[in-house]
Amino acid sequence: MSGSAASSAVVAGVDIGGTKTSGALVAADGAVLARATRDTPARRGGAAMAETAALLVEELADAAGVRPGAVGVGAAGVVDPRTGSIRAASDMFVDWAGFPLGARLRERLALEVRVENDVNAFLLGETAWGSGRGSDVLGVMLGTGVGGALVLDGRLRHGPHGAAGEIGHTPGYGELICTCGRTGHLETLASGTSIARRYASATGRPIASARTVAERARAGDLAAVRVFDEAGRAVALACVSAATLVDVPLAVVGGGVAAAWDLLAPSVAAILASDPPVSGAPLRVVPGTLRGDAVVLGAAALVSASDQSFSSTPFAEGELVRDVAS
Q1: What's the CATH number where 189 sits?
Q2: Does 103 share its domain with 237?
Q3: Contact between residue 238 and residue 170 where contact means Cβ atoms under 8 Å apart
């Protein structure tokens, strides 16, 4: 990267996931100048994961012949957005919790680095360059779990405890036990894991993934159709609740399960018709358009413009409670 010309108009976005670390060099208009992907060394610890991200940025710069002016990172886990440190993480990541990712990358690359939770980055990507254009938007990511994020008045909202938008762990959706140990959370109906599990429970046939359930639903399997109908209904009710509380007119749904939007959309539309926000203001619930690029582009958006959306006071130790949900 040392031989590349520097450009403040070009930034790097990096998505550190459980299996892959992806990145792109992004111009000010959202155009992708270069892409790269490497395996995430999740079992080798935080230092190895940070080095993989740094090498990816250098690879991108060499490929495009442009050194980015800054680096944004969307990372799996609970992130303190002020410091860029990982506050908590799933046990699939060795020595990730407590790792000073932002500081390590700043030192390694000699660049400005900002780090966000990957679900927040997803929403930033969609609001900057996808289907979430607007100043007040709810983001819902349906993946292995269910995550959420909020942009209010044009700024990412963290809340005083870092948990703003955490819609996946809201109760009232039945009696199933959630991955967090509590009962009836949205995640028990709408995550990819729960869709596969509920189909297997209904049919007695073990199944590998929600994608397979979607294929069976499209082939006319009524049990599969019912599972997606219940998921779509739950997502829509959650979005209506959020819209009623904070008056957002738009919700963007992403993650792997959103690839089956054709199966979710009928029940989403039915709930929006039967149970709209009490204000009477229209609520749109739409799929994200950036798909696998959303987190990378959202990470780039972190540093492509001045986003002063942080809480006015630092998070106290143990205070940041955002769940890993993508």
Answers
A1: 3.30.420.40
A2: no
A3: yes
